[in-house]
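Obj.: predict assembly geometry.
Materials: sequence records (below).
Method: joint structure prediction, all chains together.
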Amino acid sequence: MTTPQTLKGFRDFLPETMTIRNKVITTLKAVFESYGFSELQTPTLEYAEVLTGKYGEEAEKLMYLFKDPGGRNVGLKYDLTVPLARVMGQYPDLPKPFKRYQIQPAFRAENTQKSRYREFYQCDIDTVGTTSPVSDAEILAVISDSLKALKFSDFTIRVNSRQILFDLIIKSNIPSNKSLSVLQSIDKLDKKTREEVSLELESKQITPLQIKDLFYCLEKAQPDPQLKEIIDLAKKMGAKNVKFDPILIRGLDYYTGAIFETMVEKPKIGSITGGGRYDQLIKNLGGPDLPAVGTTIGLDRICDVISDLNLWPDLPVSPTRVLVTVFSPDLLNNSLSLSKSLRTQNINTELYPDPNIKLDKQLRYASAKGIPFVAILGPEELEKNIVTLKNMATGEQVKVPQNEIQSYIS
Amino acid sequence: MTTPQTLKGFRDFLPETMTIRNKVITTLKAVFESYGFSELQTPTLEYAEVLTGKYGEEAEKLMYLFKDPGGRNVGLKYDLTVPLARVMGQYPDLPKPFKRYQIQPAFRAENTQKSRYREFYQCDIDTVGTTSPVSDAEILAVISDSLKALKFSDFTIRVNSRQILFDLIIKSNIPSNKSLSVLQSIDKLDKKTREEVSLELESKQITPLQIKDLFYCLEKAQPDPQLKEIIDLAKKMGAKNVKFDPILIRGLDYYTGAIFETMVEKPKIGSITGGGRYDQLIKNLGGPDLPAVGTTIGLDRICDVISDLNLWPDLPVSPTRVLVTVFSPDLLNNSLSLSKSLRTQNINTELYPDPNIKLDKQLRYASAKGIPFVAILGPEELEKNIVTLKNMATGEQVKVPQNEIQSYIS
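Observations (raw structure tokens):
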């Protein structure tokens, strides 16, 4: 290989990027744990038979399946739901409801595009083992708190339910064998006009009367009692901007009850969560017969948007707060002592390692790494028992007593 | 698959295990960052040619190499050093010294045994781009601070250097073509007696005089000026228990200068770090010609020992601090409000989701999950505006005003 490179769709996270990712992940974990969700991690590799036969042929074409050095058929994990189903089967004594979050990479050999990767991070929260609407509501509250904690203020959590969608079809006298196809067209109503969707429905042999009834029912649609209870509970838990939306459609093979999706309007991110109740799925994926509800949160997309739009301008690029320079080889020990003392005060401190490098270059290093403060300790400073502290953003230099550095740079 | 299972050598980290792992990782990251190291993450998969031809045939037998769905030759990462070499080549503009830590899984199809897994976590810290002994010393200081932060107090950081080892061979008049074999025997001196090692050396056609000289030189061995400087600097940085040890041998194809290893005596963990200076390796691994020094820390081993020996008995099993029970369906809203209020006070709070389940069973759930406190809110409590708080460890029950819960359970 002449030029070193990563595989397409696979990413290095250099330190600057990790700063944002770590902050996003820490923020989300704190919210999840505040609701009693605990972390689960599962292996990168699974037996191939754990992965296959679950999501159909199209999905399997995207799976990384291979033989391991021992000749076993194995595969990289494709999502976090199949491993969850396996875990529920493998550890039947796990207390239920089992409330877990999981933030790990999954692998799909898809065509790559912006914010779509072949190794991507899934971030899932799920409650397994109860049909209580309290758990559905809690997922909505967690989503709302997560977005608030990430400082996305302008969002809508759209909710709907499988039952309401099928009721629409029945009330409009549309034959049940056409329901999936019709719902796919309805799903486009948030991007296309009513006229465009009508034409599409006509092309699917839906009669004008059926179409008229369908739109009428959509307009009049109300949450059913269970969905209403979920929405009410979520609001009481503090969830913001939860809205019933009868044109929200999600995978209908997957969900059995309520379905959720979050649109972030500002910044214009679009859909960043998707979830709902899936009381049959864990069994269908080879696990035990346990009801479940949960959501996935688009971690990669969130990190990309925060980075691209510079949404967290105040987040330091580097975890390092101060670079202690070395004025000359004979003053190395003084800089070393200062570094040690700053660390004792819980200030992340990098000591420039080479006393033979000119101060100028040491300052450029701090600048290149995004370290906000530089400490200079020359003969003059030592004589007066002070430190020259340079703010790299403003260029301002101040001379401060050693024991007052902390208050200057915090 | 009749019984759901993980692949041998691959692990699920259930919530209890994750609590310890998260604490260990958070602790280590804080120490690394306090010295100005930043996080790097690299992909799970690399081009096969990035991985192969680096560590010899034996290593390659252990690699997970395969063709991806697009027909590319790829492999799971085998360590974190090869990806570091690739990163240094791929991003030549990274400011140097480049100080990174990386905590990610690596994959080796080895025979499994206690604390040896096929998917294992490596935890590496390295400084790339300087030959300064300050950087060697800093690695020792980071190791020392890390072990202190993990509350392992009784440890020895053994240091030696490649040059000192080869000087021993020369001074004992042992032919240089036997040096590696002789050093392998010396390496056993921390487990075998001097007599046993002598016999082994004799079997390698080392003469009695050469053996006598070798042991004499070992006894008299002193750190050379550079190693002395590293040790002195490390001590000034605050590193504890750094000891020169001429019988410390590590991979001699790998290291070019100082070598380090840490033995934890109590608890009796054995070796949990290994590292040193490797000024040729990044180039040899296909990267640019950059000197480097670093260490790996045995994260899996540390987590296993803390768990097996119950070294952190005070660490809560669950991140959840309190389970708010639901007394009866009509009081669900009251429990919900209490949960919300506790979360506002930064108390991780789980609300039991099903109001139809008996209180007794709700308490058993808290106990099974290791949640330390349970809040009970029945008609009596509501009337008096109090909460019954049960400490699950002691069984003690107290009745406290709602606004005083925080001080009781913190």
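Conclusions so far: The mean pLDDT of chain A is 94.
To do: check interface contacts against the pulldown list.
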